[in-house]
Specification:
Rossmann fold, 8-stranded mixed beta sheet, flat, alpha/beta, 58% helix, 434 Repressor (Amino-terminal Domain)
Length: 444
């Protein structure tokens, strides 16, 4: 998501940075291009108009025209305006471990509402909260079964009954939550393919009965402006608290994420970034704005790394690298940690200086990691510790064991040897200086 918009904006800003000084004319020309880029990304046209007006007003002011780095100043202004556009205005989803927090999930059928229930429950269980889910979508075929399957996968209880009355189901859930000292009770409500009065009346009736602490509208980012229009109608009927935007990893152009706050006056609280249960993130507008402008997202990258990696083990590994003792066992552990962090292309785009330089349609095949893993796991402990002993006959045996060609094994061993040489070089004082210089260049 946002890849095409990021690529367009990066080209515009490169042209601006290449100009020694800015005039009102070249600023206006850049604003026209930014306007087209936002409209093509399916951002609401009224929002684009207001956005461009504000950016142009600031860009033609003294802070830019008299600046020594006018191009950089314009990028800074656009970055700040993007943050304002998606600002959560201090919204925080608060769940306590000494009382019950009730949440209603609302939205159209197919928006990912049921899966979002499980993702939210799993996310807060990691924080020491005891969640429970309630199957109140009694109309969609297999909705209850889907929630039960998801609950079983993540070992979180699901309340369901044979009744078609959502009030009765809610009463059972509230009683069970009280009995089991549940902290977070998530209600999966009925959805339709389009908004209708019956659905809205039922959801409103459930809201009046359970008095939820939060109502989340679940929107599919892939539907673009349709998601924004549906959000507006749901807000008029239910006055929800915040939005969970799903399928942000898809080919959506980004319009919903940039428009929904301005249209509904309710912020995005969480974003779904993949199909796994763990693929739900708290939404940070400043991080999203940085991703859109190709600045990377170091904080999210660090958080993912902290979740996936054992800090003590990484410290030991760093020492081994500095002593040039890095072997294929260490490499395998690194691969397994990287796999836990999510899709490779999304990780790479979080690295400052790389995101905007990658093609918008870049897709890295994560299967390549599995193939490398299979090759290393087909080696003996001695071979992993001392790859230099792997001769022709050993390569044939490894090839048969993992189902990969000898050519792939040769390539892996070559790449590993090159990596070891680079690590050895980087561990010297001169190498450290080169690394510092490289990191400084990436910040620019």
């Amino acid at each position: 998501m946002f890849n095409s918009l990021s690529e367009r904006l990066d080209k515009i800003f490169r042209n601006l940075k290449g100009v020694g000084y800015l005039t009102e004319d070249n600023i206006k020309a850049s604003m026209r291009e930014i306007r087209m880029a936002l409209l093509e990304a399916d951002v609401n046209f009224k929002i684009v108009k207001n956005f461009i007006t504000e950016v142009e007003k600031r860009a033609t002011g003294a802070e830019v025209l008299k600046s020594l780095t006018p191009g950089q100043q314009v990028v800074k202004i656009v970055h700040e305006q993007l943050i304002n556009l998606m600002d959560t205005e201090g919204f925080e989803f608060k769940v306590y471990n000494n009382r019950l927090t009730k949440v209603m999930m609302v939205g159209l059928q197919g928006s990912g509402k049921t899966t979002a229930c499980a993702k939210l429950a799993a996310l807060y269980r990691k924080k020491g909260i005891k969640p429970m889910m309630v199957a109140c979508d009694v109309y969609r075929p297999a909705a209850i079964d889907q929630l039960k399957i998801l609950g079983k996968q993540i070992d979180i209880p699901v309340v369901f009954t044979e009744s078609k009355d959502v009030i009765q189901i809610a009463n059972v859930a509230l009683a069970q939550a009280d009995k089991e000292f549940t902290n977070l009770l998530i209600f999966d409500t009925a959805g339709r393919l389009h908004i209708d009065e019956t659905m809205m009346d039922e959801v409103a009736r459930l809201k009046a009965h359970i008095r939820p602490d939060y109502i989340f509208f679940v929107a599919d980012a892939m539907t673009g402006q349709d998601a924004v229009n549906v959000a507006r109608e749901f807000y008029a009927k239910l006055s929800f608290d915040a939005v969970i935007l799903t399928k942000l990893d898809g080919d959506a152009r980004g319009g919903a994420a940039l428009s929904i706050k301005a249209v509904t006056e309710r912020p995005i609280a969480f974003v779904g970034i993949g199909e796994k249960i763990s693929d739900l993130e708290i939404f940070y507008p400043e991080r999203m704005a940085s991703r859109i402008l190709g600045m990377g997202d170091v904080l999210s990258l660090i958080e993912k790394a902290e979740e996936a990696m054992d800090i003590e083990a990484e410290a030991k590994l760093a020492k081994r690298m500095l002593k040039n003792q890095f072997n294929l066992n260490d490499f395998l552990k690194q691969l397994q940690s990287i796999k836990k962090m999510g899709p490779l292309d999304s990780i790479i785009r979080m690295i400052p200086g790389l995101g905007s330089k990658l093609p918008a349609d870049l897709k890295i095949d994560d299967k390549a990691l599995k193939h490398v893993e299979a090759i290393i796991q087909s080696m003996t402990d001695k071979e992993r510790e001392r790859p230099e002993i792997i001769n022709g006959s050993r390569r044939m045996r490894i090839s048969k064991g993992c189902g990969r060609s000898v050519m792939e094994i040769n390539r892996l061993l070559r790449q590993f040897e090159d990596m070891k040489k680079m690590m050895k070089k980087m561990s010297t004082p001169q190498g450290m200086k080169q690394m510092e210089k490289l990191m400084g260049g990436m910040k620019e």
